[in-house]
Each structure stands twice: as C-alpha cells, then as structure tokens.
Amino acid sequence: MKKGITWWLATLLFLAGLFAAHGSLADQAKITVLNPLGQPPALKLIPMAPRLDTLDGKTIYIVDVGYPETKPFFDQMASLLSAAYPKTRWIVRSKISTYFEDDPDLWKEIKAKGNGMIIAIGH
Amino acid sequence: MAVEQLGVPTVPIVTDAFRDVVKGVAAVKGMPNLRIVFVPHPVFAKSASECRGIFEGGDPVNKKRVLDELVAGLTAPLTDEEKKSGFIQRPLPRLIGPDTPENLEKLFKENGWTDYLPIVLPTEEKVAEMLKGTHRRPDEIVGTMQPSPPHEAWEYTVEKVAVNAVMAGAKPEHFPVILAIASTGATSLFTSTNSWARMVVVNGPIRNEIKMNGGIGAMGPFNEANAVIGRAWTLISKNLGNGGRPGINYMGTQGNPLNWNNVCIPEKEEGLPSGWKPYHVQLGYKPEESVVSIFAGIHFQQASAPMSPLKEGEYESPEHMAAVIRSWGSVGPYLNLHATVLLDPTHARDLSQRYRFDSKEKLIAWLRDNTFQTAWEYFMIYPSDLKKAKEGVEPFASWLKLPEGALVPVPKFRYLKKPEIPARLHEEPISVIVLGGETNPWYFAGDFYYVESASVDKWR
Q: In sequence order, what are the residues at sequence separation of 6 or more whose Cβ sits closer than 8 angstroms to the Cβ of residue B223?
C-alpha cells in the first residue's frame, strides 16, 4: 500500500515537474521586437467656424473642384437650392487647376463676400 | 478646412467611395467632426435627372436627405466637440512584446505592417546588426514620407529604417542603399485612383559591392540585393510613410504588380556603349559616386526591334521605338511628356554603332523629335490649340479634318515652355537606362519619369 502511494506521489511530482519545465520553456520562447511604424505628428485640433442662424439674405458659394463631366451635378445643386431657398444668393465658382491645388484667392473672395461654402467633388 | 479656418462655415461633398480616406484626412488635419456630406459614387457623367435624384435622395453614409444635410451643415449650431482646440500627442511604443514569434508575425500581418509575405522579425539584436551598415546614429532623423499631399507625413529615424530593412530580409551591406531611398521621402505606394508604381535605379560602385544583378533576369526574382532593397522600400512606404492601407490611404483601383519590388535595378554601366554615360553621370554625379534615382510611372511594356520587309537586312529600330512610345499615353504631372527606355546592352551597342547614336542624349533627341501622335492625343495635351482649331486657326484646323488615327506633324514631346515643367524635361523628356544579360535585344519602354536622386555614400 505504502509502496503504491509512494509510486503515485512520485509520478505526480514527476508530471508536475514536466509541466513546470514546459511553461518555463514557453516563456523563454517569447521575444520582443521593435515597432516598425514611423512617428505621426501631434494632432492640432482646429475649432470649426460658427454656423449661420439663417440662410436668408446670405451669400453661399458652391465651389467646383473641376473633376471632368460633373457640370450637371453642380447645375442641379444650384437649381434645387435656389428653388428651396430663394432669399439666399447661390454663386457657383470653379477652383483653379486640379483638386490638389490650393486657391487662396478664391478663399479670400469667399471670406470677403460670402457667408458659407459648399465644395465638391472628385469622381 | 482652409475656409473654415477663415471663419466661414463649409460643407464638403464627397462620394462614398472615399469615406474612410476623407474622414481620416479631416481627423489628422485637425477637424475630425468636419460636416462632410456623402453621395453615391460616382457622379461624373451622370445626367441632369440622375444628379437631381442624388440631391433629393439619401446620403449613403449619414443616412440623411442630401439637400437637407447641406443646409444643416451650414446652419446647425456647433457641438462642443466641434468647438475643441489644442494638441493631441500620439507617442508610439518603441518595443512590441514579449510574445511568441508566431503571435508577433500574426500581429504584424493583421496590422497591415507587412506585404503579406513572411518577414524577418525585427528583434533588437537583428536591428543592431543592421545598424552596423551605416555610420549614422540610430536616432538621427532620415526624413518624412506621405502617400500623397493631403495625407499626413510621418517622420522616421535611422533605427526605424533598419527595422523595416530587417523585416524585408536585407543585410547590413544593403542598408546604405535602403537609407538613401528612404532619405528621398518618396513613397513607392503613391495613392491615387490610378494605380501608380515606382522604380529605383542604382548607379556607381555600390552595385557590385553588394552584388546587385544588372544582367540576365535583372528585373525578375533572381537576386537577393535587388529583391530585398525593392521590398524594403515597399515596407518603408507602408510603415514609415503612412501608406498602403486600401480604402484609407491607398486608392489604386486595381493595384500595380510593380509595387512588389518597385523595379529595383542597377544600371549595367559595364554594358554602356562608348560615349554613353551612366544615368547618374548624366545628372551631374561623378562616376565613382554611388547614387539611387527614383522614377514614377504606371507601366512598362516589352518590345522588340523588328526587321523591315521593305528594307533588306535593316532593323527599324529607332522608328519602331518611337512607335512603341507613341502607342501609349503617359500620365503624371506633365501629361504625355515623358518616357523611360530600358535597353539591353546589345541593343544599345546596335543603336550606337549602326545608327550612330553615340550618346544617350543623341538617341533621346531623335526620339523627342520623331515620336508623333494623333490629333486627339495632341489636343488632349494642348486644349488651347483645340479651341484655335475650332475657330479655324491653322495649322490646327486642318488637323481636325485628318482621318481617324492619322498622325499630326508635330512631335509628341513638343511642348510649350511652361514654368511648371522642369527645364530638364525640355531637353530630355526620355530617360535611357542600360540593363540586361545580352541574350536578346528586346527592351522595355514605359511612361516612367525621373523624380529625384540621393547619394548612397552619405549613408555608408
């Protein structure tokens, strides 16, 4: 009886030792690597412009960035908005060159003469 | 956003295919809550009634009537989130782990940090070994890179470039070339709905020092240096250049197979005919300098120099080359005004000896002046001349009456000296690189144009 219990205890201890060794080996198999990503710049949050209390009496620019074959899109936009908001002046203007290009002169005009802007559209 | 910052409320309209792109750009530019209205993609070439339907219909992203959303965008009071200002720092951990190699490879793949081929994990030991390939400090800033102008540019150090070089399977001897490429800040994964590609040509002694292959199979998967340097550029463009995420910062509609290796090739300077200069020497570098030159384009096609049945025993080599170049339009900032030819040394010798092009410049000048185009191709590049043609101004008016497919008597590479076109393109709109194993005079020609160069020697 004693021999049987001793045998079982020894077996249990041996198995426990095996599991401990395996866990230790698994830990050793873990590695650390370097992060491959570049550093993004800090984000600067910019507050948005205050909104209009009404469209009546206001001038809104509709700016076309110049993607080919989109004239009907702007024509319909201007037509629908004019019909729905007849007390608002809707001006359709084209931005210079491609949509990548900035147009600071147009922005200055909108700031000086407009109250809002809708801008569209690539593709 | 420029107009918002002037204090004028704005509403941008964007097609829904660009939802993730535009929201991402707005966020990193500082206005994560920009009131963007989305419409179904695409809108070009739609009829008036279809366009009316778009405005009377629903925004597929925000689920509101488009016309109502436009007005609300201009008039609804700002929320607290929309009024916020300040800075948000985004520090990155230097180390990742510890974890098993299997889990780390899975993490890298799932995060989109690889090209979906197995990588070499960038342990500190491997990165330290890579850094032995340069005298530069690990924390030295190499440059910044972005996938295209609206997207934010990320900054990277020598160590970061080493991490990606390790991942690509590069060795320390390859590292100066990889650093030189990274120093240009040129992404190999430029984002546009066109599927762009890039090429890097290596000149100078470094080619042979690191055993690059400019001979048989130069553009194929047959050489370690060519392979790992090109691959490193792809990984750098993804991980250091904020690029390569489809739908977010990569929009190429079909992708480009050249992106796998970015046509990473050495010019076979030993195969240049007498009088033909290596590409970097044409740019003003000394022959003993090692240089990388970056090109951008969409495609290459392979072509042969056929024998004319009408001229016994003679190849129509330059004429056929001009026809090959004429046969495709080129994109890029200078529409149709550039091309690159990759010539096998046997073909280069033939052009030099038989046709007396005893310099690259003479061949380029001949191709520049003898590559013609159809009327519609000409007017595509010069729309102001189309206006003149319709007003009856000659010679343009006569070109409108030419049979379809007929060539106008004005070279394809004739151009107006516009300020935005670099002076170099006025004289050398075509780049000529010599490459190949001399088993066949076939060559490659494509719409690639030269972008910039960088010294490798500065990074040794």
A: B211, B212, B213, B217
CB contact under 8 A, B77 and A51: yes
Which segment, B131-145, B386-400, B442-456, is predicted with the most confidence on average? B131-145
Interface touch B123/A33, C-beta < 8 Å: yes
**How many alpha carbons lie under 13 Å from residue B425 in its C-beta half-sphere?**
25
Instruction: Tell me the shortest Cα–Cα distance from A108 to chain B, in angstroms.
Output: 8
Mutate to test the interface with A, among B4, B8, B75, B183 (most CBs of A within 10 A): B8
Query: Phi/psi of residue A31, each to 5°?
Result: -130, 165
Report yes or no: B130 and B160 within 8 Å, Cβ to Cβ: no
Residues B284 and B145 in one domain: yes
What pTM was estimated for this model as a whole? Answer: 0.80
Distance CA B39, CA B17 (A): 9
Give per-residue pLDDT as tens, B9-49: 999 999 998 898 888 889 888 999 999 999 999 988 899 99
> Which among A44, A52, A110 is the nearest to B3, CB-wise?
A110
CA distance A14 to chain B (A): 27
Determine whether B127 is exposed, middle or buried from the number of CB atoms within 10 Å of its CB (0-12, 13-18, 19+): buried
Contact B85 A111 (CB under 8 A): no
B375 within some domain: yes
Residues of A in contact with B85 (CB under 8 A): 45-47
Nearest to B78 by CA among B34, B127, B134: B34
Instruction: Tell me the mean pLDDT in the region B197-202.
Output: 98
Task: Give the best residue of B71, B99, B129 to mutate against chain A (max A CB count within 10 A).
Answer: B71
In a shared domain, residues B288 and B308 = no
The two tokens of residue B229 are 């340097």
User: Which of B250, B276, B296 is at the close of a domain?
Assistant: B296
Residue A45 corresponds to which tokens in the numbers above? 């949050």
Q: What average pLDDT does the segment B104-114 reach?
A: 97
